[in-house]
Amino acid sequence: MTRHGAHIVWDWNGTLLHDVDAVMAATNASFAEVGLAPITLERYRDLYCVPVPRFYERLMGRLPSDAEWQVMDAAFHRHYAKYAVEAELAEGARQLLADRQAAGRTQSLCSLASHDDLIPLVRTYGIEHHFVRVDGRTGRSDRGKAEQMARHVAALEDTAPERVVVVGDAVDDALAAAHVGAKAVLYTGGSHSRASLSAAGVPVVDTLTEAVELAERLVA
Asked: Per the count of CB atoms within 10 A, which of 109, 114, 134, 166 is most buried?
């Protein structure tokens, strides 16, 4: 592993994987099952947050019970698996990953997607070799990314947290970065609106190319 430049920790859903259409289709299909009204992409991006039960609280006016959450979560993932097969990598993502690796920069992937689902999916897109490490969620699905990010960064050999930049599409990515002493850049192509991302107090960009360029400047 090189010790110069930024080490980027990429998020997956909504960042490297442009799956917002699949997310919206799965969200509204699962909402129909539990008696919630359909939601627009604009409203979704304004309300969405991690941990996800808080998102449902914003919609319902109360936190779902554990039993309700289990039903909601299972319904979403069942529908998402059906729609996600059409998802593609974000624009320019494949070339960005290849270019960074060729330039001797390091990068890894840390996602709240299930680890057992994430690994074969990343391999399907043919990009696994660009990452020094890939970590998906191994515990409960109603938690944020902070503790997972701590384990991920601790496992990166010869990589000081101060040169780590987390690139993601959710405020929770910025919180996870702060938890480990890393920097963050948030991308508007996924689950949050620009306004909600801006509240995190970190740089917000509209393209992954901008995210990579800014990541290098942040650690320069």
From this structure: 166
